[in-house]
Here is the input.
Amino acid sequence: MKTWNIDTAHSEIAFIVTHMMVSKVRGNFNDFEGWIKTNGEDLEGSEVYFSAVVSSIDTRSKQRDEHLRSSEFFDVESHPKLEFKSKSFTKKSDGGYEMTGDLTIRDQTKPVVLDVEHTGEGTNASGNKFHAFEISGSISRKDFGITWNPAIEGGGVVVSDTVKFDIIIQAEDNK
Here is the structure.
């Protein structure tokens, strides 16, 4: 198998939640790493791993980020990392794949299914080959023990249970 390391300068692990029942809040994990192992040029059957340092969460609001780091959400003191390990990587269409794997947040591991689009490959300025991917999917944050959610006046809750992922990966040849 050939290993491709995630190029963090050209990649992003982002999430989106609904706030106050109507608006969207987007955030990122700024400190992450990972790799993709392929069978030569064939991407089907690839293995994927990534982890993120949860304290690197960034929603462009210092107060919100601190709250997300607290025990009411990620509890970064007790659970400093989140991890994903693929179990299958199956071709669905030309450039389209379905990736299943185990996501671990707050020491709770749950299966997830993610859609993967292989958006292309190329050679960077250093002469290294790379593959580019867009990955999307969603989870229930309650499945991972993240349940804080006070009711708001007029009905509804502060934060949606559903968390959507919007991940952009550029993986570089590990020569």
Observations:
- The longest helix spans residues 62-69.
- The two ends are 12 Å apart (CA to CA).
- The mean pLDDT is 94.
- The first strand starts at residue 2 and ends at 6.
